[in-house]
């Protein structure tokens, strides 16, 4: 049985077209490699988006005096946007987007733990944020595609 790369529905091996969305089915070997490559690219792009947002906030922080609560809000905002972006870029299924969000947030949680004043409790919170917003990124991508 093969899975559609567009909608994720299982199709028979002899099918040339998806029974759900009608897309031409690609051989499983190619599609798995393509999905792995896309997942890696989406995590790297999510990290780049996070880094750009943090650099932007750092430049603003140097101009304007900002308290620690607002800095924490900036960090969570960057994390939410970056993990949502990883899911948006993947477009496969919500599981793939959620996993990419978790991987990105896992990496970013260690970057955050280097900063003084960050607590270890940030790790599970980051993973939950990555899961939720990675999956929501996939859903928003599908929604915009159907407009």
TrEMBL record:
This is Zinc ribbon domain-containing protein. It comes from Methanobacterium veterum. InterPro entries: Zinc_ribbon_dom. Pfam families: Zn_Ribbon_1. Residues 3-23 form the Zinc-ribbon domain. The chain crosses the membrane at residues 40-60, 72-90, 97-114, 120-138. Keywords: Membrane, Transmembrane, Transmembrane helix.
